[in-house]
Amino acid sequence: MTSRAESGEPEGLFDAPEQGRAVPEPAPPATSGAPVAAGRGGAEQPLAVRMRPRALDEVVGQGHLLGPGTPIRQLVDRDVPMSLVLWGPPGTGKTTLATVVSHVTSRRFVEISAVSDGVKRVRAEIGLARRELGMTGRQTVLFVDEVHRFNKAQQDALLPAVENRWVSFIGATTENPFFSVISPLLSRSLLLTLEPLGADDLREVIRRALTEERGLNGAVTLDPAAEDHLVRLAGGDARRTLTYLEAASLVVDGGGVIDVGVLERAVDRAAVRYDREGDQHYDVVSAFIKSIRGSDVDAALHYLARMIEAGEDPRFIARRLIVHASEDVGMADPTALQTAVAAAQAVEFVGLPEARINLAQAVIHLSLAPKSNAVITAVDGALGDVRKGLAGPVPGHLRDSHYKGAAKVGHGQGYKYAHDHPGGVVRQRYAPDSVDGREYYRPTRHGAEARFTEVLARIRSVLRGTPGEARER
Asked: How many CB atoms lie within 10 A of CB 41?
């Protein structure tokens, strides 16, 4: 995932205080809708900073991590020293959880950024933490943001402190820790996975920011359509939500209503007219699949872009591609299914925005692949016969014979083991009498499926003792 340093996102809701310093007390609430002063050089704090949660009960989302008995609750309620690795997309609360833990337990909080700090800084902070623990008994929370950016040697430097509990280590990563965090450090830490915030969670973040004194304090209101657009733009990221909301509030300086037009001007992103539960959803998805089926790669990419920009669940898009790979490409290009499944896995591993590339690759592959609907025709034909009652008894020679007494009832007698015969195919009846001779799979001559036409004809001629091409049903 792109780090905050790379993306250019302003520091906000989930960013820690100045590195190496204890967490300051929250700024006093504002008495009006004006921004709250940071207390340092007269600079104004961004909305995302002002709205940073100060207690676990203020954290929005991540309910699976904050319930009774969870590791974070143990860390807070029982002051138990432990090490955590927080894995999740940007803006889901990794830094927030670390700073809240420090606030409520009165521990010394130190942040190290793996983007800008190295082993020298790590060892210096560990030394300070040891002295603090020995002299006062006060424990230190050592928070390493973007820990996956440390190389192996830099991560190794953390091991003694984690092993001996000189610090309570909390590492935050947007990358899969099984690939980016060394095994010794991961094995000594609890891995907690944070999920992108849902629409309801983001709406709660917005509501608080609009109404609370430390936020906008009722100075502006948000039109329902604009709220929907803001939630879509946020992509599950609370910090981005508040950054965009603050930008829109500056457009209506002095108070007023933030509508879709205002929000579009503020963030320079057009609102895509798309209702995830309405006609647009079904129409766009239908056009998306039909464009791929029709091999129009450019149209397919257009509809993909519309769905992504409108906030469609990327997992839904990936599922449709997996279905399409078998339904409309099938054996004409067997690798299409592999590509679609790989894209779905990429969505789970990296998420948006990077996963848009993986989805686009799958769309391009499927659009340009030769097409065949022989797979869906085959399975639906077989299902149709079964539903009509054409499901006779299994032939005796195919029945299970791996039990005492099977021979007495003739089960397995006369079965021919295919591997004992040339080519691994032998004349033998496999289907029940009710569907014997039915041919469900009819390969096309498109792409890779063309070779299966001849292969299948030869196999069927051996199985049934009939020369030539496969018989028509």
From this structure: 6
Other Cβ atoms within 10 Å of 47 Cβ, number: 25
Distance from C-alpha of 420 to C-alpha of 398, rounded to nearest angstrom: 16
Tens of pLDDT along 357-399?
A: 999 999 999 999 999 999 998 889 888 888 888 877 777 666 6
- Picking from 31, 387, 366, the residue whose alpha carbon sits closest to that of residue 217 is 31
* Contact present, 173 and 193 (Cβ < 8 Å): no
Statement: the pTM of the whole predicted model exceeds 0.85: no
> Quick count: other Cβ atoms within 10 Å of Cβ 393?
9
Is the omega angle on the peptide bond into residue 160 within 30 degrees of 0, that is, cis?
no
The span from the CA of 27 to the CA of 47, in Å, is: 12
Please list the helix, strand and coil fractions of the chain in percent, rounded to the nearest 5, in that order: 50, 5, 40
Backbone φ and ψ of 192, nearest 5° = -120, 130
CA 142 to chain centroid, in Å, comes to 27
- Three-state DSSP class for residue 113: strand
Q: Which residues pair with 37 in a beta bridge?
A: 44
368-390 burial code (b ≥16 CB/10 A, e <16): ebbbbbbbebbeebeeeeeeeee
Distance between CA 113 and CA 11 in Å, rounded? 13
Lookup result for tokens 């006779």? 392
Residues 235-270 pLDDT 10s: 778 888 898 898 888 888 767 899 888 887 887 655
Return the bridge partners of 171, or none.
85, 144
Residue-wise pLDDT tens digits, 429-440: 777 777 877 878
Tell me the domains of the chain and their CATH numbers: 53-193 (3.40.50.300), 279-368 (1.20.272.10), 384-464 (1.10.3710.10)
Contact 339, 318 (CB under 8 A): no
Residues contacting 84, CB < 8 A, separation 6+: 71, 72, 75, 169, 170, 171, 189, 190, 191, 192
Burial per residue of 119-134, b for 16 or more beta-carbon CB atoms within 10 angstroms, e otherwise? eebbeebbebbbebbe
User: What's the pLDDT band for 410 if we cut at 50, 70, 90?
Assistant: low
Q: How far apart are CA 181 and CA 191, in angstroms?
A: 11
Q: Judging by beta carbons within 10 Å of its beta carbon (0-12, 13-18, 19+), is residue 184 exposed, middle or buried?
A: middle
pLDDT digits (tens, 9 = 90+) for 292-338: 998 888 989 998 998 887 778 899 999 999 999 999 999 999 999 99
Q: How far is CA 87 from CA 4, 69, 317, 390, in A?
A: 15, 20, 24, 52
- The residue ranges of DSSP E strands in 83-180, in sequence order, are 84-87, 108-113, 140-145, 168-173
